[in-house]
Design brief:
The structure is a single chain. It is built from 10 helices and 3 strands. The chain is mainly alpha-helical. It has a domain of 105 residues: minor pseudopilin epsh fold (3-Layer(bab) Sandwich), CATH 3.55.40. Helix 3 runs antiparallel to helix 5. It is globular. The N terminus is likely disordered. The protein binds manganese (II) ion (MN).
Amino acid sequence: MAIQKKNTRRSFISKTVKGSLAIGASLSIAAPLLQSFTRKENYISSKFNTGFDQQALPYTYDGLENIIDAMTMEIHYSKHAAAYSKNAKEAATAEGVNIALGLEPLLCNISKYSPKMRNNGGGHYNHEMFWKCMRAKQVNNLPTGDIQAAINLAFGSFEDFKKKFSDTGKNRFGSGWAWLYIDGNKKLQISSTPNQDNPLMDVSDKKGFPLLALDVWEHAYYLKYQNKRADYIQNWWDVVNWDYVQQRMGDFKI
Ligand code: MN
């Protein structure tokens, strides 16, 4: 797939900064996301500040049917994810965390807190993001615009990206997540974290701002797919909300 070229600057950059977002000082990037990315304690803009309470799902429990069944969605949201939110608040209160600041500053310094805070703070953040990363099934569900261009630049093509991301999720042993994220060098990367860790955490060996999250815990798919995690991941691409991924990438340009 050819890299989308909207103008000569993009064309120039795509030829000279292969495989990297590598945003240089010469580019007029004034995005809050980029500015905040230089501050270890907060990688993100306030636009994506995540509170400790669960937000409403952006669709009904059966809104992702044929890909994720309604019963799985209901149990996942109202039991598993609700528990992470509740327990994250409990731990935050016990450990003197300022809840008003949201999850992100906490996660960036999670090594200073308890395993309960790490597991449940991560669990709550990851699920709040995961729900928004999905929407009703769409035919030919592909990224467009800047996120498409960024993926092509970093991974060669959407198909190459999709395979690498899918394999990363499939190969996560036990429970965890697959991520597309921007690293400290402004480059798109794929990683996997165990349990409820994520790339925002200082304990993560692959750090950055997450753009796309995939839950590969068995509770995310077992009722419909049983042991076939690969089938769940293959189908999941039809419900990825690329508009949301694009929003998270914010004002990054390539
Ligand atoms: Mn989950």
